[in-house]
Write a structure and sequence with these properties.
12 helices, alpha/beta
Length: about 375
């Protein structure tokens, strides 16, 4: 079980592991994370398997996640090896409107706070965490570029923004000479496939590597939750919130359980755990550079780290594609093959090769002999 093979992040030259370690569970402040000792075990397991891409945010567990990640990196002397990613945007000071949002003042405030908690003088990949619907995109991109020029961050990322916003950000970067967007982080899994309507093309044409979060649908695709006559069974956040889930947590649906049922059958035929099959399927999708995997137990992380050690047969992947196919509202149904044939006179026309499509796989350095 190793993940010591790397892909280029977007159109940049930065090499990242195909699986990233998500550190949102580092810290117990939210009631469902892990303590420092267990977080260290998860971190060690990941880097010992060859992983080099660690994802956190200033919001996670009230800052504890960043503090622990920074401590673990320093204790093992890995700062130059690890690609360290964090995010800004959420407000941790109720009543102070400028302690949250995408604007320059908050970006600089949050960035300095993250640098202190992480115990470093630079961050490899800095994300806008979520679009605030207010701050002009040119303000964000100029502030990010200023931070790059100041040496505080190396690469720019966006998370949870509309595709049009990300496209405008990249166009501004190209036009004005700002540091371009290297990564687009978003929810993407067998049960959340809407990114394929816009973001796959965004990645291919504008050079942003896709970095999916929640690739197991908050545990649904691991088989953790089961439907029954008495309702939903299974421990965890989703089970506790099943009666009135907040936005984004409404995963326990009939549609999703149909996907889970097919995934269970496919996993049985493939001879692999459900979680591994779900991650393997996602890794092969257009534009995906690295998938964020989190865990609260070492056994969970070990299973995820083995997800790329096999090839899922095309027929099995096709069954998962079919059962999880996303709805295509207007205008996306206009772009389906059948409708496009009417435009091209019923003549097959090959797609125009994209300037950027799949990240380039970079093999790990070969071991050198002392001779």
């Amino acid at each position: 079980m190793t993940i010591d093979r790397y892909a280029l992040l977007g159109r940049s030259g930065l090499r990242v592991s195909p699986l990233a370690l998500g550190a949102m569970t580092f810290g117990t402040e939210w009631g469902w994370g892990v303590d420092a000792a267990e977080a260290r075990r998860l971190f060690d397991l990941y880097v010992d398997a060859g992983g080099n891409f660690v994802d956190t945010a200033d919001l996670y567990t009230g800052g504890t996640s960043e503090t622990l990640v920074g401590r673990f990196i320093a204790e093992r002397g890995l700062r130059e090896r690890i690609v360290l990613a964090t995010k800004y945007g959420y407000n941790a000071e109720p009543g102070n409107p400028n302690a949250g949002g995408n604007h320059r003042k908050n970006l600089l405030r949050a960035l300095d706070g993250s640098l202190k908690r992480l115990g470093t003088d630079y961050i490899d990949l800095y994300y806008l965490h979520t679009w605030d619907r207010m701050t002009p995109v040119d303000e964000v991109m100029r502030a990010m570029d200023d931070a790059v020029r100041a040496g505080k961050i190396r690469y720019v990322g966006l998370s949870d923004t509309p595709a049009w916003y990300a496209a405008r950000a990249q166009t501004l970067a190209d036009w004005r000479g700002f540091e371009p967007v290297a990564a687009m982080q978003l929810e993407y899994s067998l049960i959340e496939r809407h990114p394929e309507l816009e973001f796959a093309d965004l990645s291919a044409n504008l050079g942003m590597g896709l970095v999916p979060w929640s690739p197991l649908g908050m545990g649904v695709l691991s088989g953790k939750y089961k439907p029954s006559q008495g309702g939903i069974t299974g421990s965890g956040r989703l089970g506790a919130l099943a009666s009135a889930p907040p936005p984004g947590f409404d995963k326990l649906t009939e549609r999703n359980f149909r996907i889970v049922a097919e995934l269970e059958q496919v996993a049985h035929e493939a001879g692999r755990p459900m979680a591994q099959v779900a991650l393997n399927w996602l890794h092969r999708k257009r534009g995906v550079a690295s998938i964020i995997v989190g865990a609260t137990r070492a056994s969970q992380l070990q299973e995820s780290l083995g997800a790329l050690d096999f090839t899922l047969e095309p027929a099995l992947a096709a069954r998962l594609d079919a059962v999880s196919a996303p709805a295509r509202p207007f205008p996306y149904y206009m772009f389906a093959d059948g409708h496009q044939a009417r435009i091209h006179g019923q003549v097959a026309v090959a797609d125009k090769p994209a300037e950027f499509d799949r990240p380039v796989t970079v093999p790990a350095p070969a071991a050198q002999s002392d001779a």
